Predict the 3D structure of the following.
Amino acid sequence: MFLVNHSTASAAQHYMECTTQVTDDRHATVEVREDEEALEATVRRLGWRMYGTNQPQEQLSLAQAVLAYRHEYLVERSFGRLKGCPLSLSPMYVQRDEHATGLIRLLSIGLRVFTLLEFVARRQLTAEGAKLAGLYAGNAKRDTARPTAERLLEAFQEVTLTVVEGVHQTYRHLTALSPLQEHILELLSFSSQVYTRLCTVSYEPP
């Protein structure tokens, strides 16, 4: 007499069925073709852009006119700079009207300084046909011929002036300027003395 464990037999049969695999290998070929009619219809829906200039074509070609338009000065950028960082104009937090007027005028002066600083640096780089590198944190090799005023000023954020006052003397120590910082000062036609002259030792007689 033989005893058969039906649960063991069912498990073995189930295992054999699971291990049986059927592989279906298929290949597909994709052919790309341009739908010229659909492309033309899409281009027509995109519309036209018109450029107007009083310069003769001999002095300003169509390609140059398009590039000049793309690089034109946008006054909206100044408004964005005035309302955002670093000027952060928020007159709604000022209670009196004259305070709001004074705040706007003060920050407008700062906006003029930003705009002039940026313009002078870019003009000098264009005249030299050079680019400025080292302004982007984490990417020291990245260069640009159109640096922003914010980037130029951020390059000086590590400059520290230490003042030690003694009994009769006051000592001042300034962080040494890096080559990048000195280069920026040269682009702006500034001498490094605008910083180094802060390190003079003052003496007061007893």
